[in-house]
Amino acid sequence: MAGAVRVVVGLDGSPESLAALERAVREAARREAVLVAVSTWGAPAQRSRPGAERSARRRVDESFGRLLGGYPAGLVIRPAVVRGRLAPALVAAAGPGDLIVVGDGDGRLVRLLHASPAAYCRDRARCPVLAIRPDRRVHGPAPARVPAA
Question: What top-level branch of life does the organism fall under (predicted)?
């Protein structure tokens, strides 16, 4: 395993972050890279709620469990639980030569109210950023059935 290159993925429990995790696992295996799974809790200026850090760590475990049934064998995974917002934590965790994989939702309201984490990373990261949208056939609502004629 090379170890010099890392794939950094952000996990917040959303369908977008699960899609990003799926791609990040493939990229880390392909590149023989360490996978850094980042989850965040609380904003630095806010008072933290009890158990917030523990919940963020559990989110990492649950994301791997939901997507893959657990942590994949043969891949070095380094969970990183960080206080703060996800996008700045991803940028801080990744260096030149690494790859950030981040979920990119398509909700217009969310983009109006908050900057997209993918856009934040693309604007500020010192490495390539891969923004992943979830496959609606897998993560979205079931397709409507058309009655037989």
Answer: Bacteria
Rounded to two decimals, what is the model's pTM?
A: 0.82
pLDDT in tens, 78-134: 999 999 999 999 999 999 999 999 998 765 545 555 568 899 999 999 999 999 988
Chain position carrying tokens 């996008």: 87
Listed in sequence order, the residues at least 6 apart from 149 whose beta carbon sits closer than 8 Å to its beta carbon are none
d(CA 141, CA 74): 33
- pLDDT per residue as tens digits for the range 124-138: 999 999 999 887 544
Phi first, then psi: what are they for 126, rounded to 5°? -100, 20
Closest-CA residue to 81 (of 5, 2, 10): 10
Q: Which whole-number Å values give the CA distances from 125 to 2, 41, 65, 79, 87, in the listed order?
A: 22, 21, 28, 20, 10
Backbone angles phi, psi at 103, to 5 degrees: -70, 145
Q: What are the angstrom distances between the C-alpha of 29 and each of 3, 6, 23? A: 11, 11, 10
